[in-house]
Specification:
Elements: H1 5-14, E1 25-26, H2 31-38, E2 43-44, E3 54-57, H3 65-79, H4 82-88
Antiparallel strand pairs: 1-3, 2-3
């Protein structure tokens, strides 16, 4: 059975402390530009929020789920408050 990419992404995101569902990822400075430049078939600058450094990820193409999991975690680390980061880093 093939897993729905949106459900897989939702699982990655909602596994992080106190997350809610959104459709873009916050990107650390410079990361969005690099990903969009090197992989425009997989990443894009969202029409709303793109000016604030957010990154869009196409889910209708072959995805590297390890890379997407890293992007999701980096996005979370970019915007999460310190207390949630401490919770995330607990063993």
């Amino acid at each position: 059975m093939v897993e729905d990419p949106l459900e897989r992404l939702r699982g990655l995101c909602l596994a992080l402390p106190e997350t809610t569902e959104r459709f873009w990822c916050a990107a650390p400075p410079g990361v969005r530009e690099e990903l969009v430049a090197t992989g425009p078939e997989r990443y894009f600058r969202p029409p709303y929020g793109g000016q604030r450094g957010w990154l869009g990820v196409y889910l209708d193409v072959l995805a590297d789920w390890d890379e997407i999991a890293e992007i999701v975690t980096d996005a979370y680390r970019t915007i999460a408050p310190k207390r949630l980061l401490a919770e995330l880093d607990q063993p």
